[in-house]
Amino acid sequence: MRILILNYERVVIEALTALVETMGNDFTVVGGSDSGLEGVELARRLTPDVVLSGMKLRELNGVDTTRRIMDEVPDTKVLILASDPKSEPLTEALEAGALGYITRHSEAAELETAVRTVYSGKVYLCPESASVLVETKVLAEDSEEEADVVFSVLTPREREVLQLLAEGNGSKEVADRLNISPKTVDTHRSNIMQKLETDSLADLVKHAIRAGLTDLKI
Amino acid sequence: MRILILNYERVVIEALTALVETMGNDFTVVGGSDSGLEGVELARRLTPDVVLSGMKLRELNGVDTTRRIMDEVPDTKVLILASDPKSEPLTEALEAGALGYITRHSEAAELETAVRTVYSGKVYLCPESASVLVETKVLAEDSEEEADVVFSVLTPREREVLQLLAEGNGSKEVADRLNISPKTVDTHRSNIMQKLETDSLADLVKHAIRAGLTDLKI
DNA sequence: ACCCCATCTAGGGAATTTCCCTAGTCGGTC
DNA sequence: GACCGACTAGGGAAATTCCCTAGATGGGGT
């Protein structure tokens, strides 16, 4: 079973690699990255069986990375390793095509179970996230959840642009990274600002942080 | 005893006003604001006996607001009402001239004690912040605390500019607010970026948030 | 007293970015 | 086929940022 590991923190990538490889010799880690964009690229090149991905990644968040991977390498199974199922967009991850969702607080044994489960094409949710799902979806037909406008009103592409801007890139750099024209990035920025009802980059950064697209590390 | 209340949240201002006025009829709340800059102005105009201020305020943080007030109306006693003494710059507040420091979790009785103590010109620290002070200053001659570069390498003026920028203002708006030229704001921005070793507004916003100059509300 | 240096101030002018408007292409959907 | 949302991008004006220079002020050290 060939595994690709995506995580915001490089140390965690190494830790998970070590952990996965102690789980048995039918497990091989074929690669790792802290960038979502690079993750998509690696998934395409390496065609891993399972992608073990965090929700927060550089350049492209976990949800949209999942969406992209499912788009380009549909046979891949994505298992999300989130830090906090309550605050992070569980539903969006599942809609994007993730098969499993566990939290960082799970034990190694549970990780192995989860990986094997999604490898066989079945859904795996840790107890914690399962109950969150029940609460938000089954029980809450009224409270209507806004789940952060970033994931409801912005398009995937707009989120990519927002994240790259919030990571400190200018229009030109974002354009280079996404292989589009700087003018297009401008248009996206305008549209994002309009949708989020703001007119300052500072507020965009705040939105991005709240949505988990980036964090306070610099 | 005439009291001025400064707090980021308007509701809290009202709550504190009500609370203070139940403490006895020798207490009068003479004003309130959620802005540090306005707070300084009010302190000058109203010359309150005690300023009860939060650490996080709009436009100018609690530490620098205290510094300004001590500068312009030295007889005023400033009592800081912080939310978390561990993460917030207690030492800086005391250096800036605050006489007291208590946390939001204190009881009404303690607030009254604190206000009366600082009114008489004596220092009041709640038990919690006192122990933080001991730990960081008395016991920690080695660990040297970095207390966020924002408070160690930036000048007060630079922090003002940083905060206003992080609140979504452009150079012109910052300049208007501070009554200086937009060009001066530019210079400050450059200097701040150099000191914080960054070249993007996004990173400035993150620094500002970490230092508690602004938060994720928009 | 005197000098030094940090701080705050600000302009000129080039370079870059943002803003506003328009518009083509594509892939679904009704 | 018509329509719409998403993504793309250009032109051109407006605004902002960047780099460099520089004066005023005031505290601190010798």
TrEMBL record, chains A, B:
Which superkingdom heads the taxonomic lineage of this protein's source?
A: Bacteria
The record ties this protein, via SMART domains, to: HTH_LUXR, REC
Q: List keywords of the entry alphabetically.
A: DNA-binding, Phosphoprotein, Transcription, Transcription regulation
| GO BP field | phosphorelay signal transduction system; regulation of DNA-templated transcription
Response regulatory domain location is: 2-119
Database matches in PROSITE patterns: HTH_LUXR_1 (PS00622), HTH_LUXR_2 (PS50043), RESPONSE_REGULATORY (PS50110)
Q: Name one GO molecular function term.
A: DNA binding
Domain HTH luxR-type stretches:
147-212
Under what name is this protein listed? Response regulator transcription factor
Q: Name its species.
A: Eiseniibacteriota bacterium
Upper classification of the source organism reads: Bacteria, Candidatus Eiseniibacteriota
